[in-house]
Hints:
alpha+beta, 4-stranded antiparallel sheet, globular
Amino acid sequence: xxxxxxxxxxxxxxxxxxxxxxxxxxxxxxxxxxxxxxxxxxxxxxxxxxxxxxxxxxxxxxxxxxxxxxxxxxxxxxxxxxxxxxxxxxxxxxxxxxxxxxxxxxxxxxxxxxxxxxxxxxxxxxxxxxxxxxxxxxxxxxxxxxxxxxxxxxxxxxxxxxxxxxxxxxxxxxxxxxxxxxxxxxx
Length: 187
């Protein structure tokens, strides 16, 4: 059996989710064709792994996540942006200000462990962010670019990272369904 998996930090703090939702609603209101991320799916992807055999999932838990020992830390969400840029966006995101270095350190440990299991390195690198929408077209793109500029330094709030989770992603017509397969608590 093959599973589509990734490793992430979930964003569940109610006040932070409200702040993200408010700006996501503004992003959607620009009229740009897009698929917004559902509030209960907010997360920072540390490492997308893709489709793997169930056996490898168990190995990832045992050799990468159980010994992770990440320290508890705080993340500050600040600024709105887009990849690759505001006038040609594919992804609209909220940035990570403080806490980005800690996320990068965890990502490095994950990459090392995954490489030891034969998982190919991620060629894209890692820039900590939270995706709030995936852009599907260019209609009204200037309105979105103006909004991104207006909110580029917006303070969304803080959260404490209490765990790193291995997630299963099931793709459906109405959007992805995420399920936590393993949770590595921070110390």
